[in-house]
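The records we work with from here on pair a chain with its fold. These numbers are not coordinates but entries in a learned vocabulary of local backbone shapes. To see the layout at work, look at the sequence and tokens printed below.

. . .
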Amino acid sequence: MNHGITEEFLDKIYKLTKQFFALPAEEKQKCARETGNIQGYGNDMILSDNQVLDWIDRLFLTTYPQDKRQLQFWPQVPVGFSETLHEYTMKQRIVTEKFFKAMARSLELEENCFLDMYGENAIMNSRFNFFPPCPRPDKVIGIKPHADGSAITLLLPDKDVEGLQFLKDGKWYKAPIVPDTILINLGDQMEIMSNGIYKSPVHRVVTNREKERISVATFCVPGPDKEIQPANGLVSEARPRLYKTITKYAELHYKYYQQGRRTIEAALI
């Protein structure tokens, strides 16, 4: 919806994702991530003894810049998966640029303000998610509550099965299914850049007793050389600066996420 990507192309992404997760285990294991590497197919990395694991299979791939791709983890089956993912990445880059400019204009800033901070070498990581039916949805979570460590996240949700929920005022609210829509979720780094005007929402994914669910999330992360801080035009005597200048936020975020903690607290002044 208003993103410029056709319904037919989004259906292709959706179908290829379902086909990959329906493959025999030995075929998926050809893309298995290696110890200490986040890219590839598998479950959560185990970072601590008391870590809460998510009820999920995932394929995690860095898709941009192209020289950061680890193509040994890109599926060769189903046929066309890699080529379609490359095309999707290029389309997402256009959506991302338009979105950053629109966000800046909405705050009466120069339109490249956020885009310049995001950087030309910003990283895009795509995570293909498969949530199998769960016999105890009252006890098991699909993805534990968290806020994204990205600047923005582009989410292609399941077309038929609900599961994504957002926390507001202490209550969880379902995200409705809207056909052919890419849901754009603001991450912690956009909250920092906007000096807290835009918020990075806490969200989770619940499980379903009878139905499987898939989604594709693309995390748009500022370049590792970029300093992320509140835009100058959003800091004043009336609205003091709320956040420190940070770099490599995504690395810190992954550790906090596995511990069930909010990374944004580390950035507060």
